[in-house]
Design a protein that fits this description.
about 110 residues; mainly beta; Jelly Rolls; five-stranded mixed beta sheet; two-stranded parallel ribbon; 2 helices; globular
Length: about 110
Amino acid sequence: MNSLIRTIPYSIELADSFFKRLRGLMFRKVELKEEGLWIIPCNSIHMCFMNFSIDAVFLSKEGRIVRMVEDLKPWRFVKPIKNAYSVIELPSGTIKRHDLKIGEIIKI
């Protein structure tokens, strides 16, 4: 398993309270652009009331990428991911643009 430590050169907002996690990016009108939302704890997401697609990077407690979902469209769901502790919601295309890989460790 790759143990490369990576950073994502975006401004990442932390959603670590009940209400911040509940709200997430719902109802936001403007797409993400070089920014993201780190939802912790979180092992599944929904795209209800979303106005744009995102890339979702699920991390273990240690920050290791355990699953990635590219170009997740509004009104879709990601079921709970085994070993996922948090998720970073990023602009669609980020996973390819930064060549992220399962097993890499993300430092925020």
